[in-house]
């Protein structure tokens, strides 16, 4: 069976990226081959260096108005892109180059609390303000709209009256770490 080569796109510290790297470290069928980041100095770049994973730093104008770095990503043999806390919208040239081969994880139960500007603490604050009884994660394919593609998996957690955006974020992150790598593996081996 051919090896699935993953490019992880991340913008921040890289806790989800690290869980993915750890999960696939000794996997014979799935390998992380590239870390793509839009923020020079982001913690995820240190994680990639420690793991000896090549990195690609994105320049905004070229990413959005050019080819989305499609050729550089293809040159690594990447055949699955995984967004792990990546805050830019994926441009059409990249979506067209990787149809149903780009995954995202969103910290809410889509279609609620998705869309432009809905990430991180903004999502958790909105969930609490709406007095929702549950929240969770949505793992989905990426299409041309924010948080819109076909959902692959959702996992839920309760929202307690005493929860804050911070405590809810911790619950949601635990779900992300538990479910994202296994879901990536499922998609990678389809």
With strands numbered from the N-terminus, the spatial order across the biggest sheet is 3-2-1-4-5-6-7
Q: What is the end-to-end distance? A: 11 Å
What is the CATH architecture descriptor? 3-Layer(aba) Sandwich
Provide the residue-averaged pLDDT: 95
> Which structural class should the secondary elements be placed in?
alpha/beta
How many structurally independent domains?
1
Order of helices and strands: EHEHEHHEHEHEEH
How much of the sequence lies in strands comes to 15-25%
Q: Low-confidence stretches at least 5 residues in length (pLDDT < 50)?
A: none
Helix percentage: 25-40%
The largest sheet is: 7 strands, mixed
Using the coordinates shown, work out and report the CATH topology. Answer: Rossmann fold
Q: Looking at the structure, what is the overall shape?
A: globular
**What is the multimeric organization of the chains shown?**
single chain
* Rg (CA only): 16 Å
Total beta strand runs: 7
| The level-1 CATH class | Alpha Beta
Total number of helical segments? Answer: 7
For the record, what is the CATH homologous superfamily label?
Formyl transferase, N-terminal domain
Tell me what you see in this structure:
With 190 residues, the protein is α/β, with parallel strands linked by helices. The chain has a single domain (4-188), classed as Rossmann fold, CATH 3.40.50. 37% of the residues lie in helices and 23% in strands. The chain has 7 helices and 7 strands; from the N terminus they run βαβαβααβαβαββα. The chain has helices at 15-24, 43-50, 60-65, 70-75, 92-97, 120-129, 165-188, and strands at residues 4-10, 30-37, 55-57, 80-83, 102-106, 134-141, 151-158. A 7-stranded mixed β-sheet has the order 3-2-1-4-5-6-7, with helices on one face. Strand 2 (30-37), helix 2 and strand 3 form a beta-alpha-beta unit. Helix 1 (15-24) packs parallel to helix 7 (165-188) and helix 6 crosses helix 7. The relative contact order is 0.17. The model has no long low-confidence stretch (mean pLDDT 95).
